[in-house]
Amino acid sequence: MPAGKKAGNGRKMPISSIEVARLAGVSQAAVSRVYTPGASVSDEMRERVLVAAKQLGYRPNAIARSLTQRSTHMIGLVMVHFMNPFYARLLQEFTAKLQALGYWTLLLNIAHGDELEKALPMALQYQVDGIIITSATLSSRMADECAQYGTPVVLFNRYSLDSDVNAVCCDSVRGGRLVADALVDTGHQRFAYIAGEAGSSTNQDRERGFTIRLRERGHDIAFAEQADYSYESGYAAAKRLLERPDRPDAIFCANDMMAMAALDVARSDFGIRVPDELSVVGFDDIQMACWPKYDLTTVRQPVERMVDATIELLLSAIDNPDGERILRMIPPTLAVRTSARVVLP
Fold it and tell me: Which residue segments constitute the domains of the chain, with CATH numbers given?
């Protein structure tokens, strides 16, 4: 294998397509076609180029090729709740499916929603073909800036009625209604809700669906506690609920992490028998939900369908940037296990 040229700092300089073309006896354009998916090139020419490339140790420059094709084949993926198992699964789903379609992922992991305004300009500087934002909404100013760059954006599991940004969400209102029906049908009387982030559309929709359906069935939420989707905040909220002398007999939590915390509090701190004395229901159906310790009844988000719909919507927006705004809601189902005294609908 050739040692290659060295730059002034002693590092090897990459072999160029010109050198490959010279050794293979073809044009530089022919080398480019060999490494362009779907390009027309004869088997004989492809073989000559690949043999010369192997001999020289050539690797095509994806960045340089993207400049000529006006596409980086990179998608920016913004993750806010990176440590939440639900979003860890999303990362796996998105990266695998985008890679299968020929796209690479630029991951932006931000700690809080207000840091989104600082992170997005970085993605735009890398000239990504599109951006997927999970668990955060986009301000009108940043939406306009993305539009000026010609960069389509799709929100995942968040939406804003005040902007023209495309979004794909689980129908959280429907999920809340499913939980209300399941608990009322089995005779529960004192209902509590542990909320996630107050300003998030997912939390608002889950609480609204739960509350409205309870009222339609002749009940009200007796108690509500504010948390932030984390295990720690769910633990503290559940403890406040269960310390009450008139404690609830059913707790609906805005996500599974808080529901698992509620189960731990009920059993370890208060010795409550689940589900005989207390039913606990979550939302997401993360992998841990079916662990024997929890066996959590929960609203199952159709993750694969949501990811597929998000990618489909983003690629459509890349091809047709002037298309109409789309908000796609995908219905959930109820996964019934032993943490709640409910039956399958």
Answer: 17-68 (1.10.260.40), 72-171+303-332 (3.40.50.2300), 172-301 (3.40.50.2300)
